[in-house]
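[step 3/7] fold_predict: job queued, chain A
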Amino acid sequence: MDRHRPTIMGSNGAIASGHPLASAAGLRVMQEGGNAFDAAIAAAAVLAVCKVAMTGIGGHNLAVLWNARTEELWAMDANGPAPAAATLDRYAGGIPRHGPPAVSVPGTVAGWESVLSRFGTRRLGDLLQPAIGYARQGFPVNHLLSADIAQMQDQLRRWPTTAAALLPGDRVPAATDLLRQPQLAGSLALIAQRGASVFYEGELAQRIGEAVTAAGGLIQARDLNGFQPRWSAPLHTTYRGLDWYGQPPPSQGFIIGQELNVFEGFDPHSMSEVERIHAMVEAKKLAFADRARYLCDPDFHPVPLEQLLAKDHAERQRRRIGSSAAGNVLAPDLLPTGGETTYLCAMDAQGNAVSFIQSLFQPFGSYFMAGDTGILLNNRMTGFSVEPGHPNVVEPRKRPAMTLNTCMLFRDGRPWTVYGTPGADAQVQTNFQHTVAFVDLELDVQAAIERPRWRHLPDGSLLLEGRFAPDVVEGLRAKGHRVTVGEPWESETGGAQAIMIDQRTSVLQAGADPRREGYALAF
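[step 4/7] structure written:
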């Protein structure tokens, strides 16, 4: 296939993130002796400044991390809970999509510090310096960010602090303008000096709580007090002799494990492209029906992961897939559509591996910037249900179901490929397609990322990128799929990054998605 970008290779370290400036910051850390964990946090902090529509310190992050020295694999969850006042009665009329009532406890800063305290070799304050510099001195606005702000400018103008920060001079920043965020720089500088405690126990917690409550939201300073990320074993299943690891609930990550378990029973090499896509889409439908029924915070309601990821459950599900598109497995969509997120991954010469994702949830989160902190807050509360008795119903201190997830594939007990993507519900569909491309089609990371993608939408239609051959489009329509053909490179299918290691030579291969602004670097 024709490539739009080369596969980036190096033997000392590699990073692929959602923005070139973030990748450069992470690479520099490794070149100066830091490890993959240090690089990931430096890159994540730059993303929190330069991808303002998609992430920030008012959001959340998740990761799967491999420590090569101790040979430990962990899942980290910095998905902050609902505030203590978030009862179903308070949201009887529904959870607003935006504004202060949509804000859950931000977890991003705690996630950064927690990763470094376990595995890092550099101080958080030092790793924040590139991000502080871009916030204070400005970074060049690219065409995508300019278009995002232009599209959402009316909503952003509803909140004076947000408009002042993102619409300087009351105008949409044009591509190549420098966007300066001095108030955010000040908040990041406080975190660099005092650590995450200033965000959760100190001055920033107080300022965030006061701003949100004054504007009609539920978050108070005491809701931030004591927040700590969760550390646990990642989800696990096998796929054609490889080990797949992902994010446990309340992430939707188990869907990928289910999809792989179902598709493992098919022989992709004996199938046409139409038959392969059809089987994968049907596997997706079955897994999403399980998501709608079971996904929630397991601290509040059990999620039957052992059964959901069992091979015999996959066999039963596989038998439900026929030669025509099924229309009776679409469960009510659990999570709102849309979503803005950014994904990064890093590997170093020591064998450490990081699969990391960070988000405000939907574009520009809640649209609400907390007072003079420069911190744009998330709208993660919209991940809850307001249906009484539903496992994911909103409750105080409960973590909302979330689309964020990250992946690792192991071969012979060692990391082989780390990968992920933003894209809300598309995440677990794109990650599924990439796993099949890596394993079954034996593609390198850039070739896999650039393959045409599909996305099965909540309305039951099947979006195909415009690069699919006409006979594939018509073949899927003949099977009963309600196909729409999109742009050749649809950002709606995600903005993936991935790193693969050649376990024979230890050469790292990194790839980034031309659908968005991601960039891969190695040395």
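[step 5/7] annotate
The chain has 18 helices and 19 strands.
The longest helix spans residues 273-294.
exit 0
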